[in-house]
Design brief:
This protein has about 150 residues and is α+β, with helices and mostly antiparallel strands. The chain has six helices and four strands. A hairpin with an 8-residue loop joins strand 2 and strand 3.
């Protein structure tokens, strides 16, 4: 923001970017996965949203494990493709920046475009198909998702 933009202008730009991305999300959910979260909690969320999963009919599972969310692994389940998964992650991250008022983090970026390019690069580098950290969990998750969609 070295070009004289105020924090409030930058916040407005972030909010506009959030709206832009939200308009492009058609399917998929974002979940934090940490060691304290029980697999049954995740299955409960999937069960609760089963009608959406049936409507979306997407069985994709993406995993982001990088610097944006510190000690948590992120799952995006039901997104149409990798691009939609990236959009979901960027949107959630930008919402967290606003909610937690971490705008000082963005001060090293000259524009919202520069911040967006950083986020896209970071997510692309660390986004994997499936859940490579735990293949058994991934299989259980896929089986449960298939069961929900095929009911």
């Amino acid at each position: 923001m070295n070009n004289g933009e105020s924090n409030s202008d930058f916040i407005k730009q972030i909010n506009a970017k959030i709206e832009y991305y939200e308009d492009r999300i058609n399917s998929g959910i974002f979940l934090n996965v940490n060691n304290e979260r029980d697999i049954s909690e995740i299955f409960g969320v999937l069960d609760y949203l089963k009608e959406k999963f049936k409507r979306w009919n997407n069985r994709n599972i993406f995993n982001y494990s990088g610097d944006l969310f510190k000690d948590e692994s992120i799952l995006v389940i039901g997104a149409a493709d990798e691009e939609e998964a990236k959009i979901i992650i960027i949107t959630v991250y930008l919402k967290i920046l606003i909610k937690e008022q971490k705008i000082q983090f963005t001060s090293k970026y000259k524009s919202i475009t520069e911040l967006e390019l950083f986020l896209q690069g970071e997510i692309t580098k660390n986004l994997k198909n499936g859940y490579p950290d735990d293949r058994l969990f991934e299989k259980e998750l896929r089986d449960h998702l298939n069961k929900i969609i095929e009911e």
